[in-house]
Amino acid sequence: AHRVKKKSMRAPDALKPDAEEKKGGGEYSIERLRELASAQKTLTARPAEHMDHNAPANGRSGAGTREPIAFMPPPPRPGRDDDFGIPDAAAIKAAKAKREAARAALTSAADHTPVPGAEVDVDMDAGEDTAWEDEQLRKAMSAAAAAGAPRAVVKKQPSVDVLAGGRAALESLRNGVARLEVSRQNAKNEVTRADAALASSEATLKNHEERLTAAGERYKYMQEMRDYFRDLCECLREKGPIIDELEEHAQRLHEHRGLASKRESEGNLRDEATEAEAGMEAAQGALMRGASQAEAIAAATAAAEGAIAARFDSLRPNLDEFGRDLNLAERQAAEKRAVVRRSRREEELSMKNLGEEDDVEDAVEVELFYKGLEDATEAASQVMRDAGADFSSIPPIKARSEEWKRRFPRAYKDAYMPESVPQLFAPFARLELLSWSPLYAETRTSPGSAAAPAIDAMRWYSDLFDYGMVDGDDAAADDSDGNLVPTLIEKLVAPVVEHAVNECWNPLSLAQSTRLAGVVKEMTVYLEPTECEAMRRILSSVRARLSEMVDRACDIPGWVPVITAAAPMAESYARRRFGVAVRCLPVIMAWDGVLPQSELRTLACDRVVAGCAAPRLRLLLARPSECLAAIERLVGVLPPDWLTGSAKVVRDVASTLGQAVRSQPEAHSAAAVEADAGAGKAVPVAALANILAALGDNDESAAVANLFGLT
């Protein structure tokens, strides 16, 4: 509501009574009226009807003064209700009551809208009652003065200003109603917003309460996880030195067996080379002296048997730190190997694939290896026996870790668990790898040609393959847990394989090479050689060892068959060296899919076939049947598409052999082959035609077939 300052109703030319007169307002008497009349400067005359007729006549005294005329209030006009008269005390009291009621009604109004042109002059000050009474007197005197003269009755017409003011007032009221409606709508909107804010605050409070509860649970769970993994790390820290010792023991076992195998293989080749060279010199000397074939054979055999002893007789004692003669030990080992060779010499004469089989390892060394490996495996099974069930195997640790990741993935990541889990599971994988070998059979009874146990068949691999796949979903691309198995293979399996390649692998062993190549090929599924340094080192070592094998093992002596026929040990040695060269070919091809095929073809075709085997094949043309057998051995090992380029020399030798056979058809007939009885002079023409066709020389194959009626 608007509080409006009300204008005073006092006449502008009236004198303001003092404070005492204000306090005595409401007293009416002749004396008071006279005082009011004398104070009214604007009134120069009084109406006749207000004069007191009983007073003396108006005149001037001799002193020139005029006596005041007594004033009489006018009597009320008959029949007139609107006549202005002097209100009595009851009227004034009623007017005051009415005014107070109006003031109370105005004060209690809820809203006030000002109406232009209709300003209400209300004085809210209770101290101006006297002024109102003075105004009533002035109006009464003004009306009495005006009543003295006749007034013309004029009919009032509605003023244009009044109509305009009414319309303006109506418009103002309408605007006020509109503003009230807007105000009401705003208030309603404010209430709606307040309700929404209250609901939002309640939801926020509930959310904070839930978060507080979750934070409490998370804190409690984190404390449990901290205690669990702290105890686990302490347990693994205590077991670490034991596992390290067992790994070193397993490595020494592999190194010792590899060294023994290498020493045995190289010793046999060296002893055979010594015997063969001594026999060749003796046979050649005997033939040059004109001795017979039998005499040359006897001289060559005697020289070969005494060559080993003669070699060690020229050596001085070589003492170690314990005073043992190493040369004497080597001599005893050589004599032992010589006895073994003599025992199987008769058997080797009838072997067509001499040298292609792996060298036989020392049975004592093999037994010691498996005995030590079994002891290491047994010790590994006891390492975690004193640990609790929650710490002694992979499954409970995996369950705790995956539960943590599923419930609080952010805290799991903030605790660097993806970077730590390989170290938590590594000890268990290391214990299982103690009994795993990439080179040797798993047990004594396992066949030597059996493949190494696959990595994905190990227990730790099966337990950890799906680690990090929460609720069965695959790990995200940026989730480090998805690389747990490749990381373990790189950090645990790769060092074992690298040690085997550098320290234990005998490249001449086809069984070891096949097993090792299979392991490395499986590792390339998880480790990219272009990105993994460990794989690059392994492949580099494999290349170096294969190249070294070709240089040292594929050296075939170029002895003339006429002389080797008088030196049986030399002939056997040459055949064995050719067989070793043929054995190198499947060793090289075992790495197909691991090493680039271009590198493997260079080793096999250029260096082994063209560089080492081809000269031997040309020498064997003097023995056509033996030459054909050697060609068949090469063709049976190499893929047909590898027998091109530098390996085409094999086809050339076969074509030359076919031409030689066609030049002497009688010497290679079926009857001649039966009569040859293994002397190597007659060639089975059907086998020759097949080999020529396999090598791509179809014309020569057809010519041989047509000549001998094989079509």
Concise summary:
With 711 residues, this protein is an all-alpha fold.
How would you sum up this structure, described in words?
The protein is mostly helical and 711 residues long. 63% of the residues lie in helices and 0% in strands. It has helices at 19-23, 30-39, 89-107, 129-146, 160-288, 293-313, 326-349, 363-382, 394-407, 409-414, 417-433, 459-464, 484-504, 510-523, 533-553, 561-564, 568-589, 597-619, 624-637, 648-663, 670-676, 685-694, 698-707.
Q: Number of helical runs?
A: 23
- Low-confidence stretches are 1-25, 41-50, 55-67, 79-84, 109-127, 149-155
Broad shape: elongated
Gyration radius, in Å: 66 Å
- What is the H/E string? HHHHHHHHHHHHHHHHHHHHHHH
Q: Topology, pairings included?
A:
Elements lengths: L18 H5 L6 H10 L49 H19 L21 H18 L13 H129 L4 H21 L12 H24 L13 H20 L11 H14 L1 H6 L2 H17 L25 H6 L19 H21 L5 H14 L9 H21 L7 H4 L3 H22 L7 H23 L4 H14 L10 H16 L6 H7 L8 H10 L3 H10 L4
Helix pairs in contact: 5-6, 5-8, 5-11, 5-13, 5-17, 11-13, 13-14, 13-15, 15-17, 17-18, 18-19, 18-20, 19-20, 19-22, 20-22, 20-23, 22-23
